[in-house]
Amino acid sequence: EKKDLILSVNNIEVIYDHVILVLKGVSLNVPRRGIVAILGANGAGKTTTLKAVSNLLHAERGEVTKGSIEFEGERIERLSPNDLVRRGCIQVLEGRHCFGHLTIEENLLTGAFTRKDGSAAIKADMEKVYNYFPRLRERRSAMAGYTSGGEQQMCAIGRALMSKPKMILLDEPSMGLAPQIVEEIFEIVQDLNAKEGVSFLLAEQNTNMALRYATYGYILETGRVVMDGEAKMLRENEDVKEFYLGIS
Ligand code: ATP
To answer: In this model, does residue 246 exceed pLDDT 80?
Structure first.
């Protein structure tokens, strides 16, 4: 049922620089309160898909030339990234973007820029972020640029949370992090999903980890969805095992 979907991407095509066709008709759905993974090798089009949703392609001379994207049943292709944040859809960019010369706490505060409720509500939400990420509380006064990769990834997610999102588009949260930190982050993602009802669409090359936490996955290859299904089914699929999990 369509109304149970928070996000629906329908047959989108994305072209960079007017000529480079990168997404060749990608469709995917995220149910309300779902955790959905986009999987695939480097260059398959995962980041492009997320940026198409959050309308961040223009800066890279990319555009959606076909198809449609609906968030909570409404077309969003023409909304600015900020309008989308106001509606509750925010992207955490690949490479854990934090402001290196601001403290962790200042970074979190910048995440509240679209909000109109007062500072008391913002303060309360910051406490909530600290409760999910105790490491961020410990490091609240540290300059983000001097914190670890894992802490920066947590800071980037925490910053997104400060906008009170309904859905977070999370690009490659595991990139460059030790397995146990990746696990710590995915546990928190799962918690946020269960307790706060935040939906997640995550792009991951770490198929194994992603399929342990997502409920559904889409596998992209050169701009096309080549397989999709329940995470459990994908984990047990022989081709997925061979090509993406390194087991055969
Ligand atoms: P990664 O893990 O590297 O982020 P990905 O699956 O997210 O990989 P994309 O970054 O979406 O893949 O890239 C998909 C394809 O689009 C690649 O072939 C890439 O070279 C190409 N591409 C990405 N950005 C641009 C751009 N600004 N201009 C031209 N081509 C681009």
So the answer is: no
E strand or H helix at 243, and its extent?
A: helix 238-244
Q: Give the distance (Å) from ligand 1 centre to CA of residue 243.
A: 20
Give, using CA atoms, the residue closest to atom 10 of ligand 1.
47
Looking at residues 150-162, what average pLDDT do you find? Answer: 96
Q: Ligand 1 in contact with 16 (CB < 6 A)? A: yes
Contact 7, 77 (CB under 8 A): no
111 lines ligand 1 (CB under 6 A): no
CA of 138 to the centre of ligand 1 (A): 36
DSSP code string of 120-183: HHHHHHHHHHHHH-HHHHHTTTSBGGGS-HHHHHHHHHHHHHTT--SEEEEE-TTTT--HHHHH
Spatial distance between the Cα atoms of 154 and 184, rounded to a whole number of angstroms: 10
Residue nearest to atom 31 of ligand 1 (CA): 16
pTM, two decimals, is 0.94
